[in-house]
Amino acid sequence: MIPEVATETKVRTKHYVRKYFRTTPSRLALIVGSIALILIGLKVLTIFRIQQDAEVVTPIVPKEVKRHTYKSEERSSQCRIEQTTTVISWEPRVFQYHNFLSDKECDDIIAMGKGKVQPVYEYIKETNEYVGSENARQKRVQISKKRTKWLDERIALVTHVPPENIEKMNLIRYNATGDLGDHVDYFIKGQNPTVDMYIRRSGYRIATFLLYLNDVEGGETYFKKTGLAVNPKKGDALLFYSLDLMGKLDPDALHASKKIKKGEKWIATKFLRQKKYVDEHYHSTYPIGHVKLYIGDPRKNNKHKNAKVANIEIAA
């Protein structure tokens, strides 16, 4: 039997529930509307906080680079050239830039060396003499960085190496049948105190930028590992790296210049360094060791006026 007090409490509870929580259309609409307003308010607050916390990012507008618009050396007129790039090899890394220079620019560079190129003499330490010939098949001259500032800036755009890291230009003329045997362009640390000084000053040579200044039959640039040869074409440039992707000397960069079949060949080379270039005496490094090369007869230099010279042509 249920007690009367408990029964009465139960009845009163049901009465209050029916009275205060009775669902009518108006109350239901009020409840739904209130919930909707709360949700909308929370959404607006969330968006406001996100906007407050968000970082303001200013879009970076890249500097416009007219890749195919170059000015001549005198900067007096513009030459519009369509430049394309060919991947010759990835191991070693070799790239050819077509139409890097205009015909006029090539002619102007050659004019810098007309009547000034000289034979190269090699110093032989064992015999303390210089070996070379006035009738050498290859002659060269160095052009100051001041005269080729415009060229360094252009090379920097395609190689992403600062202009100040680029060596002064070596302008080279090969006579008929002229060639250059297998060699590399990098330095080998520890071979010679002079080379070590060069490395301390400006770092290693990381790459070579070679410019073809005239059309010639033969005279291809040959890479021994790949067996590929690049034909000289006036206005084209060749970029090849002396260091691999790990920053180590790359022996696969071994290359040569094939014999010329007809005419003469004009090229210019620019070596790219790891650090700002400090002017140095001309030098080159070959696989068999460091070879000191001097432009012109060393006896015409007061420092070497008593030098012994063997009149022998070298493949420098």
What does this structure look like?
The protein has 316 residues and is of the alpha+beta class. The chain has helices at residues 4-20, 25-53, 103-113, 149-159, 193-202, and strands at residues 69-71, 78-80, 84-90, 93-98, 118-124, 129-132, 138-143, 169-174, 180-183, 205-212, 217-218, 221-223, 228-230, 237-241, 255-257, 260-262, 265-273, 284-286, 289-291, 293-295, 308-311. It has one domain: q2cbj1_9rhob like domain (Jelly Rolls, Sandwich), CATH 2.60.120. It has five helices and 21 strands. Strands 3, 4, 5, 6, 7, 8, 10, 14, 17, 20 and 21 form an eleven-stranded mixed sheet that branches. A four-stranded antiparallel sheet has the order 9-15-12-13, with no helix packed on it. The chain has a two-stranded antiparallel sheet with strand order 1-2.
**What is the β-strand count?**
21
Q: How far is the N terminus from the C terminus?
A: 124 Å
State the CATH class. Mainly Beta
Strand content: 25-35%
Concise structural overview:
By secondary structure, the chain is α+β, with helices and mostly antiparallel strands. The protein is built from five helices and 21 strands.
Please give a handful of descriptors for the protein shown.
4-stranded antiparallel β-sheet; Jelly Rolls; 30% strand; 5 helices; 11-stranded mixed β-sheet; alpha+beta; 21 strands; 316 residues; disordered C terminus; 25% helix
How are the SSEs ordered, and which strands pair?
Elements (H helix, E strand, L loop, with lengths): L3 H17 L4 H29 L15 E3 L6 E3 L3 E7 L2 E6 L4 H11 L4 E7 L4 E4 L5 E6 L5 H11 L9 E6 L5 E4 L9 H10 L2 E8 L4 E2 L2 E3 L4 E3 L6 E5 L13 E3 L2 E3 L2 E9 L10 E3 L2 E3 L1 E3 L12 E4 L5
Parallel strand pairs: 6-21
Antiparallel strand pairs: 1-2, 3-4, 4-14, 5-6, 5-7, 5-20, 7-8, 8-17, 9-15, 10-14, 10-17, 11-16, 12-13, 12-15, 18-19
